[in-house]
């Protein structure tokens, strides 16, 4: 199978040997945290030294971390990157630079491009464009169905060979249960991961808010939460039938948490994600008809947000994603009901997650595991660990640093962030991809 992470020539001048010393090491996969050093050779972690490093190896470039946290780089499993066909919203170049600033070292791109990523040639195009233009790894997710139309399955074997890491129709759900059953069974033959958007689009209709007093008071059409649970429950029954690996791309409320919990207790090969927006925001953030807070599925009541945090800490929720969905100004400068859904999130994914950890809502180790080791493991990527012979995709972070996310500093091509002007916690001081600096804070 083709390596899904192609080397960017911008990273080709690797330093032969580097030493990150005086670091607060945290391996999210084990939860182990200790002062020490990391030695890097030819793009890989050569050694993780616990305790003081007696002396740096001869000829090594030494980076003194001055007590800052060193951890694996973030693996974002859900990001729309624009190319091909929507370069006016985002490009691989702009997205990768925003990602590097935010401590993301691997981006999993969704297939809702033009043309869609439903054939080997388009996977190859994205990988080659990323090789030439991106400064972080880009791992394409391919379409479950041809044209993202939910009818005819894509050629999973050829797509995997071309470098796809998983299969999804992005924000579209497969309504036909027979097609979804065939997709899971076909993917199982390759031990491939199916990432599905669990939402009954017919039941959601044109709903833009969660049912309740707020939606009624604002005069907004509601999208029932059952649209998520009905589709999720159907999918879990299909997992029982097929035995295929299934990942609910994003769950957003307490009822879905319980369905995933029961499936895991049953031993089904089921995992799930949650967006940072649904972990950090709630339905009251749309007050004033602020379209930057319009996302899909819509923001939920506070009790659902708290249930998601609890499920993340318990391990019921496996990964946190940015759900990066850039929209141009004209798509957001509309009445709330007509504005496009979506928010950018590459630069704020890690800082907002760290803010939640610093507030005691969830442990730091669990947050980092959900951002690094767990997504890397689900996708079969050789990163996400602070361990010998794994990829030297690393971040150096001052976890206590507080700063304000100003519009002028946004690197993404689109500027539709719900966190604009918000207080962030955790400053990424340095991002390394294959052992090479792709971001160093000024």
TrEMBL record:
Keyword terms of this UniProt record: Hydrolase, Pyrimidine biosynthesis
InterPro entries: DHOase (IPR004722), DHOase/Allantoinase_Hydrolase (IPR050138), DHOase_cat (IPR024403), Metal-dep_hydrolase_composite (IPR011059), Metal_Hydrolase (IPR032466)
Alphabetized SUPFAM superfamilies for the sequence: Composite domain of metallo-dependent hydrolases, Metallo-dependent hydrolases
Superkingdom of the organism of origin: Bacteria
Residue span, Dihydroorotase catalytic domain: 68-252
GO molecular function, one term: dihydroorotase activity
EC primary class: hydrolase
EC number: 3.5.2.3
PANTHER family cross-referenced by the UniProt entry: ALLANTOINASE
Name assigned to this protein: Dihydroorotase
């Amino acid at each position: 199978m083709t390596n899904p992470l192609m080397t960017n020539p911008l990273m080709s001048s690797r330093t032969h040997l580097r030493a990150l010393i005086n670091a607060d090491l945290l391996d999210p996969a084990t939860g182990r945290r200790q002062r020490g050093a990391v030695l890097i050779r030819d793009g890989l972690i050569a050694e993780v030294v616990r305790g003081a490093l007696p002396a740096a190896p001869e000829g090594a470039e030494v980076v003194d971390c001055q007590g800052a946290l060193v951890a694996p780089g973030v693996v974002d499993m859900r990001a729309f990157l624009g190319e091909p066909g929507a370069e006016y919203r985002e490009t691989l170049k702009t997205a990768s630079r925003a990602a590097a600033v935010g401590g993301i070292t691997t981006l999993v791109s969704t297939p809702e491009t033009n043309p869609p990523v439903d054939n080997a040639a388009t996977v190859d195009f994205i990988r080659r464009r990323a090789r030439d233009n991106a400064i972080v790894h880009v791992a394409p997710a391919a379409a479950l169905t041809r044209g993202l139309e939910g009818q005819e399955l894509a050629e999973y074997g050829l797509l995997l060979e071309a470098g796809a890491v998983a299969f999804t129709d992005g924000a579209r759900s497969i309504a036909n249960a027979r097609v979804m059953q065939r997709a899971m069974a076909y993917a199982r033959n390759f031990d491939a991961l199916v990432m599905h958007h669990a939402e009954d689009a017919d039941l959601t209709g044109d709903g833009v808010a969660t049912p309740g007093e707020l939606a009624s008071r604002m005069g907004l059409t509601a999208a029932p939460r059952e649209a998520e649970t009905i589709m999720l429950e159907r999918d879990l029954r299909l997992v029982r039938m097929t035995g295929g690996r299934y990942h609910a791309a994003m769950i957003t409320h307490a009822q879905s948490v319980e369905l995933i919990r029961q499936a895991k207790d049953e031993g089904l090969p089921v995992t799930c994600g949650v967006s940072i927006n649904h972990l950090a925001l709630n339905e009251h953030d749309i007050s004033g008809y602020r379209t930057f807070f319009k996302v899909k599925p819509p923001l939920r009541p506070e009790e659902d947000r708290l249930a998601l945090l609890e499920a993340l800490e318990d391990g019921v929720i496996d990964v946190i994603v940015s759900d990066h969905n850039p929209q141009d100004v004209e798509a957001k400068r509309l009445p709330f009901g007509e504005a496009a859904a979506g928010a950018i999130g590459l630069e704020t994914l890690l800082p907002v997650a760290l803010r939640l950890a610093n507030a005691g809502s969830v442990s730091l180790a669990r947050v980092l595991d959900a951002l690094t080791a767990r997504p890397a493991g689900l996708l079969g990527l050789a990163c996400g660990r602070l361990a010998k012979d794994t990829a030297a995709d690393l971040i150096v972070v001052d976890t206590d640093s507080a700063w304000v996310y100003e519009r002028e500093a946004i690197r993404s091509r689109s500027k539709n962030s719900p966190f604009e002007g918000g207080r962030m916690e955790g400053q990424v001081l340095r991002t390394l991809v294959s052992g090479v600096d792709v971001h160093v804070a000024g």
